[in-house]
Design brief:
The structure holds two protein chains of two kinds.
Chain A: H1 3-34, H2 41-57, H3 63-86, H4 94-115, E1 121-122, H5 127-130, E2 132-135, E3 138-141, H6 142-164, H7 166-176, H8 178-183, H9 188-213, E4 216-217, H10 223-236, H11 241-261, H12 269-283
Antiparallel strand pairs in A: 1-4, 2-3
Chain B: H1 2-26, E1 30-36, H2 43-59, E2 63-64, E3 67-75, H3 80-92, E4 98-100, H4 105-118, E5 122-124, E6 139-141, H5 146-160, E7 165-171, H6 175-190, E8 194-201, H7 209-218, E9 222-225, H8 229-241, E10 248-250, H9 258-263, E11 271-274, H10 284-297, H11 303-322, H12 327-335, E12 340-342, E13 345-350, E14 353-355, E15 358-364, E16 367-374
Parallel strand pairs in B: 1-3, 1-4, 4-5, 5-6, 7-8, 7-9, 9-10, 10-11
Antiparallel strand pairs in B: 2-3, 11-15, 12-13, 13-14, 15-16
Helix pairs in contact in B: 2-10, 2-11, 3-4, 5-6, 11-12
The chains are: A mainly alpha, B alpha/beta.
C-alpha cells in the first residue's frame, strides 16, 4: 500500500466513520439519560431518509428546506414513539423497556415494508454533495467533506445544549437521579421528550447524509448502520457524547482498513466490527471515555 | 358488539360458500403455486416475476384439461428458510400441482430439496446456479446456467473488449455471486487472461470504497461485478467517484429498472449478460407480451417477469401434453419439453436446464441497448 492509496483509504474510512458517529451520538444521548438502549434509533434514521425523500421527490421542496422539514418531522416521530411506547413502561424493569424498543424497531421496519414497499428507492442528493474533488491521485466526494463537518457542528450543538442550557441541565439531572429531579419540580417527562426529539433529529440528519452518500434507501437501510453505530457508542463509552464521536471514527476506520490491508478479508468486515464489540464488552465495558459514571449524559 | 361482528362474519362465510362452492364443484381449478420474493433485499425480482405471471394470465387462456387454472402466491421474504416454508405450505396446504420460484438460486436450492422429496415439479424462472438442477428430477429452470453466462462474459471481455487483466468484486453471501465469480475467473484464465483482484463483499453492504480503491491500485482492464442490483448500483456510483474508468461487466441480476435511477449516470457503459432483448429474435408470444407490458405498466420490459411468464407457459404446455394434473406426470412432460415457444425465445429442456441463447446488453441513455447474442 503506497501513501496515496493509504490516504485514499483513510478518507474512505473517515467519511464512513463520521456517519457512524452521527448515529452513535443519538444512541448515547438516550442511554446517558434513561440508561436504556433505544433500538428503534436505526429505524428513526430510516424514517429521516424517507421523509427527506418524499419531500424532495413528491412535493418538490427545495433541498435544504426538505432536509429541515424531514428533521423536524422525524423529531416528532421520535417524541411520539416515546410517548406511546416507552413512557408506559418507564417505571417497569429495564428489560421491559429494552424489549419494547426491539418491538418498536421491528414495527417501524415492517410498517415501512408494507407502506413504501421493499424495493429500494433512488435518493436525489444535491449537486454540492456529489461533486468530486481530485487531489493528486486521491479523490474526495463532496459528501466525504460535508459529513464530517456536519458531524462536528452537530456534536458542538449537542455539547452546548447538554452543558450550557437549562434543558441540558435538566437532562443531566434526570440522568443522575430521576426521582430527585422530579421532587425538585422538574417535569421529567418533558425533559425526556426533549431528549428523544434531539436524538431523533440527529438520526434524521444522519439518515439524510447517509442517503446522500449511498443513494439507495429501503425500509431496512438502518439495520446494519444501526448495529455498527451502537458498537461505536459502546467502544467510545456509552453515555459519553465525545466518546460516540471517537467510537464512530474508530469503527469506520477499522472497517475500511480491514479491507485495505487484506482485500481477501472483505467478507469478514462486519465480523471484525462485532469482534471489536465483544472484546470491548469483555475487557472494557465502559468504553474509551466511559470512565466517570456520574458525569454520563 | 363483538357478537354482531361474529355473526356478520359467519354470514359472509356462508354466502361465499354458496357463491363459490357451486362453481368449484363443477370443475375444480388446477393450482399453480408461486413462491416469490415479494419483500426483502431482492423484492424487485419477485415483484417483477409476479407482474409477468399476471400479464401472461391475460394473454393466454387460463384453462387446461377443461379446468380453470388458479395462481397461489406466497411471499418468501428473500429468505432461504422462508422459501422452504413457503414450498411446504404450497404443497401440503394448497395442494398445488407445480411451483414457480423462488427467483434467486440460494432459495431455489432450499426449495428444490423439498420438491424432490414431495415429488412436485418446481421451476426456477431465473435461478441460474448450476447446482439448482444438479442431480434433481423435479427441479427445472427457464433460464441458462451461470457457468454458461460467466463463460460468455469472460469470452466477451477477452475477445471483444481485448482485456488481459480483470478484477472481480463479488458478494460472498450469495451462492449466485460466488459461483459466477469463480466461473468467470476460470474461464478468463483459461483464455490466457490474468485475474489481478478477486475481492469479496457482502450482501447489504453499502460502502465499497475500500475494495474499489484496492481494485484501482491493481489497475485491471475490465471489472466483473456478478452481484445483485442493489450492490451493483452503489458499486458503480462509488467506482465513478473514485475515478475508475474501466469497462464494467455484470450478469443477469442487474436487469431491474431501478438500477438506472439508483446508479444514475454511473450506469452508462455497464454491460451485462441478459436473457433476452427485443432485437435478438422475437417469438410471437414475446411480441404480444412486450406490447401488453408497455400498455399496462409503461417503461421497459424486464427479464424476471418474462421468465416467470415462460415458466407458466412451460407448466401449461406440460399439463396439456401429460393429459393429467398429476405432479409426477407433469414432471415427465416438462423433461420432454422440445423447442417450446415462450416469451424470451424458444427453449428445450435438458436434464432440467433450459437450452437457450444469452444476450449481451449495454446501458446507454437510460436503457439497455443490444450488443450481441451468444448461442449455446
Amino acid at each position: 500500500m503506497n501513501a496515496a492509496v493509504f490516504f485514499q483509504q483513510l478518507i474512505n474510512g473517515m467519511s464512513l466513520g463520521s456517519l457512524y458517529a452521527l448515529l452513535a451520538i443519538g444512541y448515547t444521548m438516550v442511554y446517558g439519560i434513561l440508561r436504556f438502549i433505544n433500538f428503534a434509533h436505526s429505524d428513526i434514521f430510516m424514517v429521516g431518509a424517507y421523509s427527506a425523500f418524499f419531500f424532495i421527490v413528491i412535493f418538490r421542496v427545495p433541498w435544504p428546506l426538505a432536509a429541515a422539514f424531514a428533521v423536524c418531522l422525524t423529531a416528532l416521530v421520535g417524541v411520539t414513539i416515546d410517548r406511546v411506547a416507552y413512557r408506559p413502561v418507564r417505571d417497569a424493569p429495564r428489560i421491559s423497556a429494552l424489549i419494547t424498543a426491539v418491538g418498536v424497531s421491528s414495527f417501524i421496519e415492517n410498517l415501512g415494508l408494507v407502506t413504501v414497499g421493499a424495493r429500494p428507492k433512488a435518493f436525489e442528493s444535491p449537486q454540492f454533495m456529489s461533486r468530486v474533488f481530485h487531489i493528486g491521485p486521491v479523490t474526495i466526494t463532496g459528501v466525504a467533506i460535508w459529513v464530517p463537518i456536519m458531524t462536528f457542528v452537530l456534536l458542538a450543538v449537542m455539547m452546548y445544549v447538554v452543558y450550557r442550557t437549562k434543558i441540558g441541565m435538566a437532562m443531566r439531572s434526570v440522568s443522575t437521579d430521576i426521582e430527585a429531579t422530579r421532587l425538585m419540580g422538574v417535569d421529567v417527562d418533558k425533559v425526556i421528550s426533549y431528549t428523544f426529539a434531539l436524538g431523533s433529529a440527529l438520526a434524521a440528519a444522519g439518515g439524510i447524509l447517509w442517503a446522500c452518500k449511498y443513494p439507495k434507501i429501503s425500509p431496512l437501510m438502518g439495520v446494519y448502520p444501526g448495529w455498527k453505530a451502537f458498537t461505536a457508542a459502546v467502544v467510545g463509552g456509552i453515555g459519553s457524547i465525545p466518546g460516540a464521536m471517537i467510537g464512530g471514527f474508530i469503527i469506520g476506520l477499522i472497517e475500511v482498513m480491514t479491507v485495505a490491508i487484506s482485500p481477501g478479508l472483505s467478507g469478514y468486515r462486519d465480523g471484525v466490527i462485532f469482534l471489536v464489540l465483544v472484546v470491548f464488552l469483555l475487557v472494557r465495558p465502559t468504553g474509551i471515555l466511559g470512565e466517570t459514571l456520574k458525569e454520563k449524559v | 358488539m363483538r357478537r354482531s361482528i361474529a355473526s356478520f362474519a359467519m354470514l359472509v362465510v356462508l354466502l361465499s360458500f354458496m357463491l363459490f362452492g357451486a362453481t368449484t364443484y363443477s370443475a375444480e381449478p388446477i393450482k399453480i403455486g408461486f413462491n416469490l420474493e415479494m419483500t426483502g433485499p431482492v423484492a424487485g425480482y419477485g415483484q417483477m416475476g409476479w407482474e409477468g405471471a399476471q400479464l401472461i394470465k391475460e394473454l393466454v387462456p387460463m384453462e387446461v384439461l377443461g379446468r380453470p387454472v388458479q395462481f397461489v402466491l406466497v411471499d418468501n421474504k428473500s429468505d432461504r428458510v422462508e422459501s422452504s416454508n413457503a414450498t411446504s405450505r404450497l404443497i401440503e396446504k394448497e395442494k398445488v400441482v407445480a411451483i414457480i420460484g423462488p427467483m434467486i438460486s440460494g432459495s431455489m436450492l432450499a426449495a428444490g430439496d423439498i420438491c424432490e422429496k414431495k415429488q412436485v415439479p418446481v421451476l426456477g424462472p431465473a435461478s441460474t446456479s448450476p447446482l439448482t438442477t444438479q442431480g434433481k428430477k423435479y427441479v427445472f429452470r427457464a433460464c441458462y446456467t451461470d457457468s454458461f453466462q460467466a463463460e460468455i462474459a469472460a469470452k466477451y471481455a477477452y475477445e471483444d473488449l481485448r482485456a488481459r487483466k480483470a478484477a472481480v468484486l463479488f458478494d460472498i453471501s450469495n451462492d449466485y455471486c460466488v459461483a459466477l465469480g469463480r466461473y468467470f475467473k476460470d474461464a478468463f484464465e483459461g483464455l490466457g487472461g490474468k485475474i489481478v483482484a478477486y475481492t469479496p463483499c457482502n450482501a447489504g453492504d453499502q460502502d465499497f470504497s475500500a475494495q474499489l480503491t484496492a481494485i484501482k491500485t491493481a489497475n485491471p482492464d475490465v471489472i466483473y461485478l456478478p452481484n445483485y442490483y442493489e450492490e451493483v448500483s452503489l458499486i458503480l456510483r462509488q467506482a465513478k467517484d473514485l475515478g475508475l474508468t474501466q469497462p464494467m461487466l455484470s450478469a443477469d441480476g442487474v436487469d431491474v429498472p431501478e438500477i438506472f435511477q439508483i446508479a444514475g449516470p454511473a450506469i452508462e457503459g455497464l454491460m451485462h449478460t441478459a436473457h433476452w432483448h427485443e432485437k435478438a429474435g422475437m417469438t410471437d408470444i414475446g411480441k404480444t407480451y412486450i406490447a401488453a407490458y408497455k400498455a399496462k405498466h409503461g417503461g421497459e420490459v424486464n427479464s424476471f417477469g418474462a421468465l416467470t411468464a415462460d415458466c407458466v407457459l412451460m407448466v401449461l404446455d406440460a399439463i396439456k401434453r401429460a393429459g393429467s394434473a398429476d405432479p409426477k406426470k407433469i414432471r415427465d412432460a416438462l423433461e420432454a419439453t422440445e423447442n417450446l415457444e415462450v416469451v424470451t425465445g424458444y427453449l428445450s429442456i435438458e436434464k432440467g436446464d433450459a437450452v437457450k441463447a444469452a444476450v449481451i446488453r449495454e446501458a446507454k441513455g437510460g436503457k439497455w441497448e443490444f450488443k450481441s447474442v451468444a448461442n449455446p
